[in-house]
């Protein structure tokens, strides 16, 4: 019995080793089975959408100048290496998928590939019985496939119970997002195509309309802030229009991939955004540190935009992403800072840039990590950018209102006498220059004003001037305009339509001036007196002569009053 136990015990370690070796072999076999596993097998039934994740789906191969023939594609596949993901890679890849139409009728499916920077793409259907069939070309340099923005699609028609292999060849300078493949039934694809293309079209239409509105405003105002706003909205709109593939669909281009236009335009759009931000918040005067940062951002963006044109695409792609990463916290940070300063323009600016910044961050992140989102990152950016453009135009509107108020203040300050609040000499000359018909000018000079100043002081003299101007304006009652053209001199301007109206008008003005004298004396200005002279354009040939004649008649009146007082 003891010997038996010893025997059993002696087998314990060998059995353990055998188990470990078996597990190790199973592990190796499982790894090998993954690496040499059969191609994906898909049953096409009544399901609206079948998703094939890109993990272990693609094989890396050498890039070509033109789409490969089937024999060439077959040879490339034999020498290709399987990859776990295409994310961030460049070059050419091949996928080989076994398909079976298990329906009892002929159907058409649409194969949609998540690729937005694709140069070349071609697909072949190799039935189990029969010769390979080349499907539609796709990719932006050579394509006749169904049009859907931000991705690539081709159609596949299969007879009932037909089986075979779908070969897909793709080539790009960069695979920005994982190249998952979705297979749609016809109706489901058309619904997806309508939704995505509609969102894209509406976004571009709105952005370009807003850019045109800003451009028309600039043509009228010639303001740098409005010009920067136009560049902000317009360059973003054009850039994303190109990045979506829409530009390539409109214009057949063979020399370069038009989708890359978005990468080239983006730095210039950020340069315009930086300048707009600076001018919107008047950073030159109010926020000098932010002004320096935004000027630096503008210079760097412009330099990067020019540099990208001469760099290999992958390097330009990285530079564009670095600019986006720098702009996101900068614009949001400035918006928060200005909102804390209670600058009401910031409420629109921050709202738009916060949404756009977050969407842009998701977009950049999707080029680094696989994100499972119900909506493509590009569409998220487009929606957020459209809202941002609305907000930017609203913030521009607020800026224009501030500028208008400031201009009105400056205009009024330069044309309104600050003491008496009637028009000054500049306002008088402007009015006379715009009068196309005849008019009457009354020149008024205050008698004894110097005595009031010398006896009572300048403060009392100022009060006297204010009372004179207020009383004259009240007496005129809309008959004409009152201007202070000197220290104690006022001018009344009244329009006259016909010569027959002159005599009654002169009598009316004389009564008003006399009434003004009496009211001033009743208010306590006992020495108040008004010398005046009148002239009309009917008796003179120009404005200067009319003023001169009224002035002469005023001095005659003053001399007459002085001589009367002496006697």
Structure, explained:
- With 567 residues, the chain is an alpha+beta fold.
- It has four domains: 37 residues; 139 residues, Immunoglobulin-like, CATH 2.60.40; 218 residues, Rhopdopsin 7-helix transmembrane proteins (Up-down Bundle); 142 residues, Alpha-Beta Plaits (2-Layer Sandwich), CATH 3.30.70.270.
- The strands form three sheets. Strands 1, 3, 4, 5, 7, 8 and 10 form a seven-stranded mixed beta sheet that branches.
- Helix 9 packs antiparallel against helix 10 and helix 14 packs across helix 15.
- The protein is rod-shaped.
Task: Give a quick summary of the entry.
The protein has helices at about 1-35, 70-80, 185-220, 225-245, 245-250, 260-280, 285, 290-310, 315-340, 345-365, 375-415, 425-435, 450-455, 460-475, 500-520, 545-565, and strands at about 40-45, 50, 60, 80-85, 90-100, 105-115, 120-125, 135, 150-160, 165-170, 180-185, 440-445, 480-485, 490-495, 530-535. The chain has about 575 residues and is an alpha+beta fold. It has 16 helices and 15 strands.
Structural descriptors:
disordered N terminus, Immunoglobulin-like, 7-stranded mixed β-sheet, 4-stranded antiparallel β-sheet, single chain, 15 strands, 567 residues, alpha+beta, Rhopdopsin 7-helix transmembrane proteins, 17% strand, 16 helices, rod-shaped
Distance between the termini: 163 Å
Radius of gyration over alpha carbons?
Answer: 42 Å
By oligomeric state, this entry counts as single chain
* Helix share, percent: 55-70%
CATH architecture of the largest domain: Up-down Bundle
Beta-strand content estimate? 15-25%
Task: Please tell me the overall pLDDT.
Answer: 85
- How large is the count of helical segments? 16
User: Would you give the CATH topology of the largest domain?
Assistant: Rhopdopsin 7-helix transmembrane proteins
Describe the biggest sheet?
A: 7 strands, mixed
- Uncertain segments are 1-19, 21-38
Total strand segments: 15
How many structural units, i.e. domains?
A: 4
Overall SS class: alpha+beta
Q: What form results from the Cα inertia axes? A: rod-shaped
Can you identify the CATH class of the largest domain?
Mainly Alpha
């Amino acid at each position: 019995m003891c010997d038996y136990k010893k025997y059993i015990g002696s087998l314990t370690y060998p059995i353990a080793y055998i188990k470990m070796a078996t597990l190790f072999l199973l592990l190796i076999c499982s790894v090998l089975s993954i690496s040499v596993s059969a191609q994906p097998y898909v049953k096409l039934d009544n399901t609206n959408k079948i998703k094939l994740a890109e993990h272990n789906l693609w094989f890396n191969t050498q890039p070509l100048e033109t789409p490969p023939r089937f024999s060439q594609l077959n040879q490339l596949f034999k020498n290709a290496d399987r990859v776990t993901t295409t994310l961030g890679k460049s070059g050419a890849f091949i996928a080989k998928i076994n398909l079976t139409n298990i329906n009892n009728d002929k159907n058409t499916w649409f194969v949609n590939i998540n690729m937005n920077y694709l140069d070349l793409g071609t697909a072949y259907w190799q039935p189990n019985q029969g010769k390979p069939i080349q499907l539609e070309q796709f990719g932006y340099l050579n394509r006749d496939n169904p049009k859907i923005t931000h991705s690539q699609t081709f159609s596949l028609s299969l007879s009932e119970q037909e089986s075979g292999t779908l070969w897909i060849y793709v080539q790009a300078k960069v695979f920005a997002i994982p190249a998952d493949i979705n297979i749609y039934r016809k109706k489901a694809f058309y619904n997806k195509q309508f939704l995505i293309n509609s969102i894209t079209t509406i976004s571009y239409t709105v952005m370009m309309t807003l850019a045109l509105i800003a451009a028309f405003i600039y043509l009228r105002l010639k303001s740098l802030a409005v010009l920067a706003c136009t560049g902000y909205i317009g360059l973003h709109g054009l850039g994303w229009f190109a990045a979506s593939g829409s530009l390539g669909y409109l214009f057949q281009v063979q020399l370069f991939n038009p989708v890359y236009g978005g990468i080239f335009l983006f730095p210039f759009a950020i340069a315009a955004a930086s300048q707009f931000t600076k001018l919107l918040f008047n950073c030159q005067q109010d926020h000098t540190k932010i002004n320096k940062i935004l000027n630096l951002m503008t210079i760097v963006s412009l330099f990067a935009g020019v540099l990208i044109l001469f760099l290999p695409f992958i390097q330009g792609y990285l530079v564009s992403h670095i600019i986006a990463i720098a702009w996101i916290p900068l614009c949001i940070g400035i918006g928060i800072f200005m909102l804390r300063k209670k600058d009401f323009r910031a409420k629109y600016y921050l709202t738009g840039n916060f949404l756009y910044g977050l969407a842009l961050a998701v977009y950049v992140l999707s080029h680094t990590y696989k994100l499972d989102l119900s909506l493509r990152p590009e569409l998220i950016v487009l929606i957020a950018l459209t809202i941002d453009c609305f907000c930017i135009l609203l913030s521009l509107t607020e800026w224009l209102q501030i500028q208008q108020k400031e201009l009105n203040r400056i205009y009024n300050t330069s044309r309104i006498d600050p003491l008496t609040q009637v028009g000054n000499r500049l306002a008088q000359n402007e009015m006379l220059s715009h009068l196309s018909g005849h008019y009457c000018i009354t020149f008024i000079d205050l008698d004894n004003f110097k005595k009031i100043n010398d006896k009572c002081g300048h403060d009392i003299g100022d009060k006297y001037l204010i009372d004179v101007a207020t009383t004259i304006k009240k007496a005129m009652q809309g008959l004409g305009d009152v201007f202070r053209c000197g220290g104690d001199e006022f001018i009344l301007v009244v329009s006259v339509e016909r010569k027959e109206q002159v005599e009654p008008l002169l009598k009316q003005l004389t009564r008003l001036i006399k009434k003004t004298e009496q009211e001033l004396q009743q208010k306590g200005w006992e020495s108040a007196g008004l010398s005046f002279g009148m002239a009309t354009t009917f008796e003179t040939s120009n404005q200067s002569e009319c003023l001169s004649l009224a002035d002469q008649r005023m001095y005659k009146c003053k001399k007459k009053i002085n001589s009367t007082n002496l006697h």
